[in-house]
Design a protein that fits this description.
Blueprint (H helix, E strand, L loop, with lengths): L2 H7 L2 E9 L3 E8 L4 E9 L5 H17 L8 E6 L4 E7 L6 H8 L4 H20 L2 E2 L8 E3 L5 E3 L6 E2 L23 H4 L6 H18 L9 H9 L13 H10 L10 H5 L13 H5 L79
Antiparallel strand pairs: 1-2, 2-3, 3-5, 4-5, 6-9, 7-8
Helix pairs in contact: 4-6, 6-8
C-alpha cells in the first residue's frame, strides 16, 4: 500500500511534496480530524542507515512526544506500518522557513528580529530546562506559521543530556549539524557541551536575521575556524545595527565555552527585553548603549557567500596578530545535516565594519 492510501486510512488526504532525502520525505496533508493542513514526515527504515535507526530516530521520537511549547512545531501523531515506514504528523509551517523568508525579503528590522529571536530563545530555554538539546539549529529548521511566528522544527539530531554522579552534564562526542552554524569546539572534533553548542548556533541565526548574510564563510573551514577562535565578528555597515544587538551576537559567538552566554543570560539581555527599547537611535549613535561601550566596539569578520540576496561584496577585515594551531583536516568533518542545501551558499557577502582594537569584554 502506498503512502497516500496508508494516510487516507488514518484520516489524512495527501497534498504536495515539501522535501525529500535519501530515506525520508515530507509531504503536506489535510487532516480530516483536525480540519487543517499538517506536515507528514515519512521515514523508510529499509533505506535508513543503522546509526540513524538505532540512535537518532528513537531519540527524535521520544523527544517529539514530550515537547509542548508554543514556539516548537507540534507533533500530533506518530505511527509505524508493518513494512517499516514511520509516519510523524506535525504542525505545518505555512509561511515556509526563515531562510527562504530572509532570502526573499532581506534582513529583518531589529524589532521584528527581536520578536522572532525571543520566540526561538524561549523554545531553547524550554528544551534546555528539560536537558534536551537540539544540535542542528539553523534558519532552515525555523518554520513560520500563518502569522510569521517562529516554530522550531527538526529534532533529528536532538538528545537528552546525561548527568554524571556529581550532577554535571556529560560532554557530547557526536559531531553533528551544519558547518556554517557549528561552534569552533565542534569543528575541532573535541567533546563539547551540547547546550553551549546550541548557543553558538543561536548567535549565527541572529546575525543572519539582522544582517541578511552569514557571519562566517564556511567554504574554507580551516580559515573560518581560525577567525572564530580569534573572536572576530564583523557587521555590515549598511545595516546600522544598534550596539546592544551587536553586543548580544558578539557574546553568543564567543569561542571560549566558559564565557559564552547561557540561555537565561540571552533572555535577560537588554536587546531582547522589550522594555529596553526606550533607548533612542540618537543615543545609540552617540555610543550610549547599556554596556557603556561604543556600538563599533563589538567587532569583527565573518562572512558569506554568493547569493540570492545580491548584497554588496564584503571587505576583508585585517586578522589579529595571533597564532592558532591548525586542526588536521580530518577533525573538520561534520555529520551531514538532513537538508538538501547548505545554508551558507544561500546568503551573500556584505560590506563590514572594521574591527576595533579592543572588543568589549564586560558581561551583560
Amino acid at each position: 500500500m502506498d503512502d497516500a492510501a496508508i494516510l487516507k486510512r488514518r484520516g489524512y488526504i495527501v497534498g504536495i511534496n515539501l522535501g525529500e532525502g535519501s530515506y525520508a520525505k515530507v509531504k503536506s496533508a489535510y487532516s480530516e480530524r483536525l480540519k487543517f493542513n499538517v506536515a507528514v514526515k515519512i521515514i523508510d527504515r529499509k533505506k535508513a542507515p543503522t546509526d540513524f535507526l538505532e540512535k537518532f530516530l528513537p531519540r527524535e521520537i521520544e523527544i517529539l512526544a514530550m515537547l509542548n511549547h508554543r514556539s516548537i512545531v507540534k507533533t500530533y501523531e506518530i505511527f509505524e506500518t508493518s513494512d517499516g515506514k514511520v509516519y510523524i504528523i506535525m504542525e505545518l509551517g505555512v509561511q515556509g522557513d526563515l531562510l527562504e523568508f530572509i532570502k526573499t525579503r532581506g534582513a529583518l528590522h531589529e524589532d521584528d528580529a527581536r520578536k522572532k529571536f525571543h520566540q526561538l530563545s524561549s523554545a531553547i530555554k524550554y528544551c534546555h530546562d528539560l536537558d534536551v538539546v537540539h544540535r542542528d539549529l539553523k534558519c532552515e529548521n525555523l518554520l513560520l506559521d500563518k502569522d510569521f511566528n517562529i516554530k522550531l522544527s527538526d529534532f533529528g539530531f536532538s538528545k537528552r543530556c546525561l548527568r554524571d554522579d556529581s550532577g554535571q552534564l556529560t560532554l557530547s562526542k557526536t559531531f553533528c549539524g551544519s558547518a556554517a552554524y557549528a561552534a569552533p569546539e565542534v569543528l575541532q572534533g573535541i567533546p563539547y557541551q551540547p547546550k553551549v553548542y546550541d548557543i553558538w548556533s543561536l548567535g549565527v541565526i541572529l546575525y543572519i536575521m539582522v544582517c541578511g548574510s552569514m557571519p562566517y564563510d564556511d567554504s574554507n573551514i580551516k580559515k573560518m575556524l581560525r577567525i572564530q577562535k580569534e573572536h572576530r565578528v564583523n557587521f555590515p555597515r549598511s545595516k546600522h545595527l544598534t550596539g546592544e544587538c551587536k553586543d548580544l551576537i558578539y557574546r553568543m559567538l564567543q569561542p571560549d565555552v566558559n564565557r559564552r552566554l547561557h540561555i537565561d543570560e540571552i533572555l535577560s539581555h537588554c536587546w531582547v527585553q522589550p522594555k529596553a527599547r526606550v533607548l533612542s537611535s540618537t543615543a545609540i549613535k552617540e555610543g550610549e548603549n547599556s554596556q557603556g561601550t561604543e556600538p563599533s566596539d563589538i567587532p569583527e569578520p565573518g562572512s558569506d557567500k554568493k547569493s540570492a540576496t545580491k548584497l554588496e561584496p564584503q571587505e576583508e577585515a585585517q586578522p589579529e596578530a595571533r597564532s592558532e594551531s591548525q586542526p588536521e583536516e580530518e577533525t573538520l568533518q561534520l555529520q551531514v545535516s538532513k537538508q538538501l542545501e547548505t545554508t551558507g551558499e544561500q546568503l551573500s557577502r556584505e560590506t563590514v565594519e572594521e574591527p576595533p582594537a579592543q572588543p568589549p569584554e564586560t558581561q551583560t
